[in-house]
Structures are given as C-alpha cells and as structure tokens.
Design the sequence.
C-alpha cells in the first residue's frame, strides 16, 4: 500500500475536507518549527541531517538517492574496479569522510583542512605555464603557493608525498563573565611542515577550516539574490554597528563575477561549483569543472551533478522544544542581544531548478552576508571580497543536533568552540556588542539563550 | 544513506498535508486532483495552540540505559574477543604458514565479522565520529596502493599502518590479504611482506576494536562514556539528546539505517549491477553472511538483546504496550527478512549473474525493505509522539 493510500484510509472523509479547506485558506505564518518549510523533517537523532526532503517528487527522490551513493563513494587510487581517481594528494577519500553524517566535522586530520595563499605581492608565484587545475577558479587575492596551490592536502596515494604535514596544538585563554564566573577558551595553532622538513614560509597566509553541515543548502541557493542584497548595509547607514556585505566571486560556468553564497567566506556561487571544488581540492578527484591537464576527468558531469543534487535536496531538521518556557525566553534574549541582526531568522526562497525548494518560508538564521568578526576569529586570509577578518554568517538551523549527529564535534570555522557558549564568546567585531550583552547576562539568562540554540 | 521519511504532524503539533505527485494524486479521485493541482499549492500547514514537546524521560528510562548496557557494549565486547583471536591466529600463521594456520586465521576473520556486522544496527555515536568505523571497515580496498606498499622496500611496522589510508586497513584489507581476491589464496602464495603487513593490520585492528568498546563503556580522550550520553537523554545538560524521545529515535534510527543499507545498497547495488564489484565481502565470498548478520543485529536491537546472551528492556516491549499488533508484525517481518536472506545461495559471489540467485536476492531485498518501511512509517511516528 502506498503511503498516500494509507493516509487516505486512516484519515477518512473528514480529513479530506479539512485538506481541501486548508488548501484554499493558507495561513499567513508558518510555525517556526518548520525550519526548512516543506523540506522540513522531524528528526533529533544522529540521522537528523541525512534525510531527503519529504516533499521530493518521485523523480527528485531518485536523483537524491543517486546523489547519496555519489556522496558516500569512497575513492581509491586508479586503476580500480570501484571508484578510481583519488589523489595524488588529498584530504579525505569521500564526501562523507569529511562531512560525517553530513554534519560539522572535528578539528582532526581528515576533516580539518588548511587553505593557503601567498600574499598578493609575493615574488615566488608558481610558473604560469605549469598547469594546475586549482588555478581555473581565479581569485586575484588568493595566489597559489608553489608546490601546494590554495589548499594543503595532507594525505597522498602511495609513492607521492603529501603537500605538508599539519599538527595542531591548542592555546588556552581564560576570561570572566560580568558576574565573575570564569571560562576558558581555546584556539588552534597549526605547525605546518613541508616534505623537505622545513616549516611553511611565514609569509604564506593560512586559514584552518572544519567541514560545515551540508543540509538545507538548496534552499539557500534558492534565496533570490535581490533578497540577500537587500539585507546588505555595507556602510552601516542604519548605525546599528552591523554592516553586512555580499561576497562577489567567480562563476566558472558562466565565466563572470557573481554573488558568493557557499563556503565559510561565501567564496562559491552555487552548489555545483562548491561540489566540484570539494571533489578536486579535498579528494584530488578531477571533474568537468576542474579538469586534468589533458582535458579528461576522474568523474563525469552526471556524478558531479548527483553529489550537488544530494546536498540541494536534503531535509532541514525541525526545531524541538518550541513550547519550552526556557527556550522561549532564550529566543527573546537572542533577539534582544541583537544576534538576530545577522542570524536572520526568516528568509523566503524564489526560483530553483528543483520546484520542491521554491517559494518556501525558511528559518536558517543567516543573512548570507560577510561580517567583520574581529581579530580573535580573523584568519587574515582575504578571499575575493571577504577580508581577513570577515566570515559569512553561519546558518544556525539544526545547530542543536550538531553533537547528536557527530558526538564531540565543535563549532566555528576551525572547531575551536567546544560548546555553543564558547562559540558566542568568540564573537567580536560587528558582533562585539552582542557578545558583551551575553557576557553581562545572569547565568540563567545565558543558559536560556544557549537552550534556545539547542532547540534549533 | 537514508531513504524518504514522512513527517509526523503530532510531534510538531502542526498538521501537515503533504503534496503528492500527480500519479499518486489520481488515487484521490479526479475531482480532488484537479482542485489540488489547480491551486498550485504544495503543502499546507496549520498550527495548533496546545501542548509542547516533552522533555521528561517517561517510560523510556530503562530502555535507553539498557540498550547500551545489554545490546551495544556486549556486542562490541564480543568483537574485541574475536579481534583478539584474529590477531592470535594471524600471528600463528605468520610464524608458521601452512594450510591449517591459514584456515584458522580465515575462520577467525569470519568470526570477528559476525559481531561487527551485528553492531551495524547501532552505528551511531563514537563509531563514526571518532573514526573507528572507517578504520575497521572502510570499503572498497585501495588495491593499487596496497600493491605499492607490498612491492616497496620500506620496512613494515606499526607506524606504517598508522600512515595508511582507511581503505588500506581494517576488515577488507585483511580479508584481501588472507583470502586473495577471489577466495583463492594458499599459504604458499604469501610473500614475507604480506605476512608482515597482515600481522601489523591485525594488531592495529584489535587496538581499534578495544578503543571502540572503551568509548562506549568508559569514554576516551577525555570524552564522556557514550552509554551515559544516551542514558541521560532528556536531562537539560545533555547537549546530544535534549529529550528522551530523541534517544529512542536514535535506537530506532540505527535499525532503520541498517535495514536501509542492507536492502538498498548491500543487496540493491549488486542486484542492479549483476557483478561482484559491489558485494562487500567478495574476497572471502561471505557477502551473504554479512547480510544475515546485519539483519540479526537489527533483530537483536529490536528485541533488546545481544549474541553474547545479554538482554534488557526492549523496543519490542515498549511498542507492544502501545500497539501489540504492530510489534507482532515487526517481529514477523524481521524474521521473514532473515529467512529470505538465508535462502540466497551462499556463497553468492560465484552465482551473482545466475537468474535463480538474482531472484532470491530480489525476494531478500523485498523482505528487508518491507521491514524498513514499517519502521520508518509506523514506528518512528510513534516514537516522535511518545
């Protein structure tokens, strides 16, 4: 029996008439639990980020399933019967190897990666005639580092040296809330050693990253550009101390500058290009956007697209505990502290290749814009329009299940924050005043605000 | 790897009417379909004012504390026992390679596989996030790099294994070394370097198995024991499971994930391709045994017991209180799936292109997916509204 037939048998005539009535009288506001509109799924287990959107058509669902296989595929060294094309250098061998259960990764080898670039005026740029696929996505302010490119691949197939060895140590610093309660923060310090045992030259700019979650991205892709630009306030003309800016990046297919949406600094315009860059940079798997020198590639356009479609069509987990009094109070405090100025709670999607993603009211808690987050979080590595201290506002939907999906995982771009409380404390720059409001709160208010975040 | 899931309105306290494709809409009658399509409205949602999500543990307390104690940890302990035997037998083989010692090592591999495959019905928690799953059971094997290591001159040591990719260690690399690429290896085929490598791999494997059980029973690297994380679901300081339903959903989700993987991938992909390429344990010709152990794992998880003879409060009993017929149905469907898989001619590897074998694979897939759908469509909604 199909799900629908079952529904009809169970629901009976009354429900059908309700169904018809509600079809014609669409309520104006959608409850905040429906974080991803019709793509929302109820799940608070470790599978929370792995569900296909429940509103997918049969055809889209099949495409999602194909994408799931592509996303799971573990690559090995060619030649091989299954999944050849790994490397020669790489960070991990599969999409899910970094994006474990589609969630936020850990700052560990295989998940943590280091983006690098030379300063713009560097003299030791690689030979322009030396083909390297990393250079097909030009960004003038991220000149590649000779022998490495723009990302350190710290693993390699047999017979090839990894580009460098990356070791992380943690620096601790103590602080105090206004009420005298102490806390300790930590930040990663990377020691990077080249194959010749020399350290990475000190002028090379580095940026440590952990993988962000991959669900809900199709919806963010479907938010009309004009809606995002309308949220921008580059000169802070409303004097609220917050000046969101869009990134403007290179679209490899359209061969033009366009709005950046994805990546921690919004340096990718769409999910196809994001996926292609990840195949190439993270796994060393060449693809139609990042070709081998001879024009061939390890995977074809269909596989690349499948992986992108998978991320596009994943469900967003619904909020939980929406009637919990403490959660409600936390939500008010979140707004009062001005967190919601950048972590915008509601956006509306427009057109998309997948009709299921269109015209949805969503609750991602992001404005998709770049903000100066202060010296504490700065990586000092510019990327297109993003300066060394700017990051794109991270979506907060589903953040409450981060450590359910991946126990012991952590927050912020490099996984330095072990708790959501630590993540808030790291906010600086444009978010300084929000952070200070949090610092000044009584313990029960801080707890309520964090509990609200856990309900997302 | 998850298949489609429907939303349960009760848990959200909103009623959701899902859009269906035009094909299924025709079931509702032409008039209704016309009305619906005419509106262009995909999903309609209405809110209800009452209620709120519960964070009380209710009747689930015993279940969520028994599950790790009586199902998860005993199964992993069995894995540790068998992985230790594997290490011992591989040591014995490398010290004196002959028909008997090789056979003993191969048998030990197969026996270690059993609790591991059964544990895939609860693959959540540290197995994934601390990388044990990848270290123990990554697939496919990077055969090209493995050949490189074996042909190379660098000494093979514990450090060598540490530097290997996950696709060059764990079950399937050990399998390839012990059984050959088509269950055709003899003791005389082994080079000294193969013996050294398989010995180091078996040692590393045993260590990882030990770490895995420790991560659940005591905690590792300063992290809390995962049994405690699960058992304290619903307490306010539990950042993983803020409600007891979420822990229950985790346990049900583990079973669903396992059934999904066996049905749609482990059986489904070879069924489509009709080659051995996607059969997980094709080197040792034991893929069908894997299917069976996955299903027994799902059954054990449902009944709250383990191969080691332990048992406790069960999902089955919890469900029977709410819906005895559904519980009986699930027990029947799980057993039917096990029986259908047992009917696949084993080993399946040499027969994968034969009609009769494919027909049995198909019946097995149908039986597994029947149980999968029941869990997904009927058990999960009950958990969410509990």
Sequence:
């Amino acid at each position: 029996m199909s799900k629908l037939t079952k529904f009809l048998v169970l629901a009976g005539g009354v429900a059908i008439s309700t169904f018809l009535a509600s079809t014609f009288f669409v309520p104006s506001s959608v409850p905040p639990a429906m974080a991803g509109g019709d793509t929302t799924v109820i799940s608070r287990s470790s599978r929370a980020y792995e569900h296909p959107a429940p509103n997918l058509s049969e055809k889209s669902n099949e495409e999602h399933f194909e994408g799931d296989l592509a996303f799971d595929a573990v690559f090995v060294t060619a030649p091989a019967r299954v999944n050849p094309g790994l490397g020669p250098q790489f960070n991990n061998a599969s999409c899910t190897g970094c994006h474990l259960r589609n969630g936020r990764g850990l700052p560990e080898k295989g998940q943590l990666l280091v983006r690098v670039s030379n300063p713009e005026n560097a003299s030791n740029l690689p030979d322009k005639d030396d083909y390297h696929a990393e250079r097909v996505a030009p960004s003038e302010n991220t000149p590649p580092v000779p022998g490495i490119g723009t990302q350190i691949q710290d693993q390699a197939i047999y017979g090839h040296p990894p580009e460098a060895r990356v070791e992380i140590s943690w620096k601790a610093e103590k602080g105090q809330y206004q009420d005298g309660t102490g806390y300790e923060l930590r930040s990663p310090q990377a020691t990077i050693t080249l194959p010749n045992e020399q350290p990475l030259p000190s002028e090379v700019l580095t940026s440590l990253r952990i993988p962000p979650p991959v669900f809900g991205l199709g919806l963010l892709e479907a938010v009309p550009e004009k809606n995002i630009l309308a949220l921008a306030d580059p000169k802070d003309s409303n004097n609220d101390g917050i000046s969101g800016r869009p990134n403007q990046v290179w679209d490899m297919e359209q061969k033009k500058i366009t709005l950046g949406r994805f990546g921690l600094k919004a340096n990718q315009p769409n999910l196809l290009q994001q996926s292609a860059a990840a195949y190439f940079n993270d796994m060393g798997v060449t693809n139609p956007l990042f070709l081998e020198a001879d024009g061939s590639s390890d995977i074809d356009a269909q596989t690349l697209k499948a992986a992108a479609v998978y991320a596009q069509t994943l469900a967003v987990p619904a909020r939980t505990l929406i009637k919990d009094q403490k959660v409600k109070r936390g939500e008010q405090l979140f707004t009062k502290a001005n967190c919601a100025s950048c972590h915008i709670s509601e956006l509306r999607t427009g057109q998309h290749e997948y009709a299921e993603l269109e015209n949805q009211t969503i609750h991602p808690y992001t404005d998709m814009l770049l903000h100066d987050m202060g010296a504490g979080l700065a990586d000092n590595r510019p990327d297109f329009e993003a300066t060394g201290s700017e990051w794109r506002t991270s979506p907060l939907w589903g953040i409450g299940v981060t450590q359910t999906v991946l126990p012991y995982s952590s927050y912020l771009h490099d996984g330095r924050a072990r708790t959501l409380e630590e993540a808030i404390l790291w906010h600086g720059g444009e978010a300084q005043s929000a952070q200070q409001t949090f610092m000044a709160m009584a313990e029960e208010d801080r707890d309520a605000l964090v509990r609200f975040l856990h309900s997302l | 790897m998850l298949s489609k899931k429907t939303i349960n309105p009760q848990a959200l306290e909103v009623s959701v009417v899902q859009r269906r494709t035009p094909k299924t809409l025709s079931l509702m009658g032409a008039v209704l379909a016309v009305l619906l399509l005419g509106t262009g409205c995909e999903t309609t949602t209405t809110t209800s004012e009452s209620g709120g999500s519960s964070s009380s543990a209710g009747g689930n307390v015993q279940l969520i504390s028994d599950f790790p104690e009586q199902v998860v940890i005993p199964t992993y302990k069995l894995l540790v026992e068998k992985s230790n035997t594997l290490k011992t037998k591989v040591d014995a083989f490398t010290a004196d390679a002959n028909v008997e010692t090789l056979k003993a090592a191969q048998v030990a591999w197969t026996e270690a596989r059993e609790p591991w495959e059964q544990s895939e019905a609860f693959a959540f928690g540290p197995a994934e996030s601390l990388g044990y799953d990848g270290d123990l059971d990554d697939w496919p094997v990077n055969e090209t790099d493995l050949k490189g290591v074996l042909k190379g001159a660098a000494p093979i040591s514990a450090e060598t294994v540490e530097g290997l990719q996950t696709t060059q260690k764990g079950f399937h690399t050990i399998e390839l070394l012990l059984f050959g690429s088509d269950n055709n290896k003899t003791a005389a085929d082994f080079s000294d370097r193969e013996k050294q490598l398989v010995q180091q791999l078996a040692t590393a494997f045993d260590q990882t198995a030990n770490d895995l059980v420790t991560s659940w029973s005591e905690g590792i690297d300063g992290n809390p024991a995962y049994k405690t994380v699960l058992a304290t679901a619903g307490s306010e300081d539990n950042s993983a499971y803020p409600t007891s339903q979420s822990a229950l959903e985790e346990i049900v989700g583990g079973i669903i994930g396992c059934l999904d993987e066996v049905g749609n991938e482990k059986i489904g992909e070879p069924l489509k391709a009709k080659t051995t390429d996607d059969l997980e344990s094709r080197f040792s010709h034991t893929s069908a045994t894997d299917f069976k152990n996955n299903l027994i794992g799902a059954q054990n998880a449902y009944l709250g017991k383990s191969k080691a003879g332990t048992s406790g409060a069960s999902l089955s009993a919890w469900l029977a209180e709410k819906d005895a017929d559904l519980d009986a149905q699930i027990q029947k469907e799980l057993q039917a799936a096990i029986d259908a898989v047992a009917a696949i001619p084993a080993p399946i590897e040499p027969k994968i292109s034969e009609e009769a074998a494919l027909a049995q694979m198909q019946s097995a897939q149908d039986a597994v997916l029947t149980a999968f759908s029941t869990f997904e469509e009927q058990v999960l909604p009950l958990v969410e509204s509990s």
About this structure: The mean pLDDT of chain B is 87. Chain B is about 65% helix and 0% strand. The first helix of chain B runs from residue 9 to 12.
